[in-house]
Amino acid sequence: MFVRHAAKRVAGYRQASTFTSIPVIDATALVQPNQRAAAKAAVAAQLHAACRDVGFFYVKNHGIPAALQQGILQQARAWFDLPEAVKNEILIRPDKHFRGYQRLGANVTRYDGGYQRDWHEAIDLYREADAAAVAAQGLPASPIHGPNQWPVQRPAFDQLLRLYLNSMLGLGSSLMRGIALGLGLEEHFFDGQRAAIQDSYWCARVIHYPPLTEGTFHRSSASENDASSSDPAGSSGTAASAAAAKLHDAAAAALKGAEVDRAVQLSCGEHTDYGLLTLVNQEDHVTALQVKNARGEWIPATPIPGTFVCNIGDMLKVWSNGLYKPTAHRVINADPSLSRISIPFFYEPAFEARVEPVARLCSADRPPQFPPVRYGNHLESKVLNNFEL
Ligand SMILES: O=C(O)CCC(=O)C(=O)O
Ligand SMILES: [Fe+2]
């Protein structure tokens, strides 16, 4: 039975708590061979507390070599320095399966009543799915299935990226085993049809955030009917410059933790992630990612060298029957002298996975809170709406 998300709190389920810091979890027992069950259980308990109370955690001792974690950020930075015409060789397009390079402002965050363009450029990649092979298996087609547009303009980056993504897939799978144990399920619960490493429809975004400075501001869609306002503010006269300065003040206040109008342009607007588990590799020199607690306070996810900052998405909310909920976050890079690279890796369910509350996490007191969803449908509904190309 499906019960519409109840306004009242369900017994035993906490709301995202009033955390003021993000826990750091040592993943050794999940990623190294021959670990004792008790050691795995101890990490699983920490993951459980973090997923239930915060929705975010850092992982350290995750097994990804420092040279790879740092090297991929450096290679990405060099790729974004290429001329726009070169980057456009792999421009994201619907007929390229929504994969490839997206220009500054192409990615949008939607909110009730409009959307705002996010001030970043990125390369989007997913598990590659050959349309003919999908058809041969008797599975439905999808506009997202296809090959990636790899950043072949810099072969060293292209090669390292493939190695990096493969390593991240392994780490994501290991963490999902810990999360399964933390939920009181068997270690391999997410393997098989749900989110096995060989089927995870993973996604990765290689992102460059130039600073939010006055010259970069666009008005939100709410004012795009006005022809003059779709230009970058500041390029169309004094009034526009004044408006841009005001918006920049709002973004600067947001960086200090203020709540801002959704129409204010940020590096990435407030959102929750739609998948299972996100692992963010962020540069160490700038704090830009912020996480919202239950009191509405924005807590900075300050970089901790050598870690990944991880968070959970909608699909874990469904499988855990609401025990875990995704936490809202946003990115603000407002210092005019800094730019930032981050690479979120999204460990996701299989495209054909049926995602539904786990029976063992449902009871008479806690009936299923969400209807079953095919992950591919959920993904399509998000990806096909993420861009204003
Ligand atoms: O760049 C980051 O730190 C996070 C980006 C993010 O939240 C996302 O891509 O979903
Ligand atoms: Fe996110």
Automatic annotation (TrEMBL):
Annotated GO MF terms: metal ion binding; oxidoreductase activity
Domain Fe2OG dioxygenase: 238-349
Superkingdom of this protein's organism: Eukaryota
UniProt keyword annotations, A-Z: Iron, Metal-binding, Oxidoreductase
Record-linked SUPFAM superfamilies: Clavaminate synthase-like
Region (Disordered): 218-238
Positions with biased composition (Low complexity): 220-238
Alphabetized InterPro entries for the sequence: DIOX_N (IPR026992), IPNS-like_FE2OG_OXY (IPR044861), IPNS-like_sf (IPR027443), Iron_ascorbate_oxido_reductase (IPR050231), Oxoglu/Fe-dep_dioxygenase_dom (IPR005123)
Gene3D superfamilies attached to this UniProt entry: B-lactam Antibiotic, Isopenicillin N Synthase, Chain
Family under the similarity heading: Belongs to the iron/ascorbate-dependent oxidoreductase family.
Protein name: Fe2OG dioxygenase domain-containing protein
Organism: [Myrmecia] bisecta
